[in-house]
Structure formats: structure tokens, C-alpha cells
């Protein structure tokens, strides 16, 4: 895939192609986890420059991988993750996107359950302010014969301003019976009732908002090996867009 | 302490409170009773400043300060506590974290020194003990997974920590079993029955008033107080119903 993609390609529908052109072609980072092994990594895009990453993960039978993404700060930040799961493999994604101003942040995932009994879970939390755009396109494919699959996507985006845009599209492609796939997707604003509750206890509105957004973003990094460092980096990014 | 005069308030352009007047002095406990839809919860929310509850006339002052000139968090710092009928669940935010921030935000607004982590935990532990609540529960996210009774006890713990001048408690007794009712009632007495504090209990039933003895009882109907009296009025209501007593 050396030619610059077009917006007709689903995975690039919301991409900033001008920014991408300068970065193209993207080297693919290959991660292979052998059968029964475990691995984990975190990708943090928090520089001011445009950045795009293309990650391909292959998990052998019974292998496990924990991937965390923080996509914040870049004018254009894109992370593409393709995962192929072997029999009984486990994959967890926890991702946070934080964008303000004119920033564009996107995470595109394709998780293929190629063999039976694999488990995948994805949690993506986006906070978008100003005129920023945040996108999550996530496809879960359950191959023929991949019975006993358990695939879950929890996608939530919070808009700080009415001028911000969130695109969220969890997608399932299932070619096997006896699978368990669920996705939840919500784009919204902070709950007014909760904000009033916090205010009634004495928290000024800006502090109440911050407290709730911190909790919202922190969900992406629960249980990560570098949970504290990732959460702190995310909260710093959040404070920059508030 | 709290002086409400001819208060009128609307929700979604529908008038709910239609000229409510009530004066509560320091050291007093008042109970407001009334049928569903009378405007009891609206009174609490309007005084607390909940968005969507629009004051269309009248005044409310707390120790001379116009409440309606203040934002909700400023009303809290001025000493107004609203106990919610349905306390909100806030995932990911722990009680101790948010209460310490809240208490210190209030102290800052009043020009007082903030509580240190240690001081706050000591205070929280003491108040949790009053309500027989385990400190571990306060380390959990706000109200998440709490039973109805636990939520109400947690409201009272918050009241104890924040130490308001006046507490407006909206159906604190709803959803409580007999033991929890007694514990909440004793908690309210321990925290709020003091010469410099006051309480407004909003309730449907006499049962909470067995534990927290009111000095005054008012009947709210159609957005106004239609009858006031002493504690005997609550018993009369319980026996004969709102319609007979308020008619």
C-alpha cells in the first residue's frame, strides 16, 4: 500500500490527507507474539507535529497482548492498529484521544478473530473541544469457524464544545455462529445532573468538569502496566484543551 | 437564617411554586410535607440552584445573602446543603477525592485554610462512623453500586464533612429500611441539631419525624404553604391525609 490513500477508502474517510501525504508511506510496525506468550506496549502521540503510526499485531494461539494508546497534542494524529488473533488469544486495547483547537485525532482498528475462542476488548475514550475532530473506526471480524469468539467495543466521546466533531463507528463482521460480540457507542456532553451534584457540594463548575473528564479518560488506562504515567500524560493533555 | 418570601418558580415554563413563604431560624428543624406534585422537590432544587429551575418571583436569603445571586457552588460555600432524593452516581470519581476538593473549595471561598489530606481523612472517618459507614465505601466511586439506603447514609456523611449552616433534605427517608432510617435520623440530629444550624426536612411520611423531631411542620400544596403547625400536625396528616387536613 505505497500509494497515498483516498477518502474513498473506509479507513481514511476522515483522515487529514494533506498531513498524511507528508508522512507517507508509513512504516508498518510488526509485533508478533508467539503462542502462549504475553506482551504489552503503549503508544503516545503527544508531540505538536503531525504523526501517524501503523501497527500490525499477530497473536499466536493462547497469546495475550495489551495495547494502550494516547493520541493527543498533534495537529494530526493517526494510529492504525490491525490485530490478528490465534486460537484462544486475548487482545485488549485501551485508548484515549484528546484534541482541541483545529486538531484531528483518529484511531482505526481492525481486529480479526481468525481462530476459535479468542477474546478482544477495546475501550476508546475521546474528549474533543474547539473545532477538533476525533474519529474511531473499529472493525471486528470473526472469521468462518471462529466459534467461541468474544469481542467487545466500548466507544465513548465527550464534546466540550458544540463546534467539535466526533465520528465513531464500531463495526462487526461475523462469519461464524456461537460468538459473543457487543459494542457500545456514545457521543455526548457531560451529564448535567452530575455537574449540579458536584457543584452543590461546593465544587466550582470548572473543577467539577475537570474531575468528571479525568475520570472519563482514566478508564482507558485502567490496569495498564504504566497506568500512572499514561493517566498523568492524558490529564496534562486534557488540561491543555480545557 | 433562611428567609423565603413569596417564592415563585417554574420548570420548563410550568409554574410549580406559586408564592411560597417560609422563615427558618437558627436552631430550628422544620418539616415540609405534602402530596406528590406539590412542589416539595422543586423547592429544594430551586434553593440549590439546579439548572432548569427558574425563579420567576420572590426572594430567598441565607443570613441576609441573596441566594439567587449566587451560583450553586457559591450557595454551598455560603452554608447551604441539599440532600438529594436520588443521589447521582459518578463513575470513576471517588467520594474522598471529590469531598476533599469540595470541602477545600468551600473553605477557600470563605477565606479559610484548606484541610490537609490527614485532617480530611480524620474528619471523614469521624462522620462515616456517625452513620456507621465503612471508610472503604468512601474510597469507592460516588454512589456507584450503593443500595438506596447506602446512598442516603452517604449523603448524611457528606453533610457531616461539609458542615453546612442549613440542610435541605429531600426525602432522605425514602428507600430506607427501619435500621437505616434510625441511623440517618440519629446522624441528622448529631450533625445538625445545634443552636447555629437549621434543617428543612422534605418528606411524605411521619416516620423520619419520629427520630428527627421537628419544631415546625408545614403542608405544601399547589406550590404554597397552606398550613403550618407544630409536630402534632404531622401526626394529624398521617391519620387523616393531606386532603382532609389541608382543606
From TrEMBL, chain A:
Q: Which residues cross the membrane?
A: none
Give all residue intervals belonging to the SUF system FeS cluster assembly SufBD core domain.
55-216
Q: Name one Pfam family in it.
A: SUFBD_core
According to the UniProt entry, where is the signal peptide? Answer: none
Q: Which InterPro entries match?
A: Fe-S_cluster_assembly_SufBD, SUF_FeS_clus_asmbl_SufBD_core, SUF_FeS_clus_asmbl_SufBD_sf
Q: Could you tell me what this protein is called?
A: SufD family Fe-S cluster assembly protein
Q: Which organism is it from?
A: Novosphingobium jiangmenense
UniProtKB/TrEMBL annotation, chain B:
Does the keyword field hold Hydrolase?
no
InterPro entries reported for this sequence: ABC_transporter-like_ATP-bd, FeS-cluster_ATPase_SufC, P-loop_NTPase
Pfam families the UniProt entry points to: ABC_tran (PF00005)
Supply the CDD domains for this chain.
ABC_FeS_Assembly
Q: Which UniProt keywords apply?
A: ATP-binding, Nucleotide-binding
Domain ABC transporter: where?
A: 2-247
Q: Which PANTHER family match?
A: ABC TRANSPORTER I FAMILY MEMBER 6, CHLOROPLASTIC
Q: Which family does it belong to?
A: Belongs to the ABC transporter superfamily. Ycf16 family.
Query: What is this protein identified as?
Result: Fe-S cluster assembly ATPase SufC
Q: Which organism is it from?
A: Novosphingobium jiangmenense
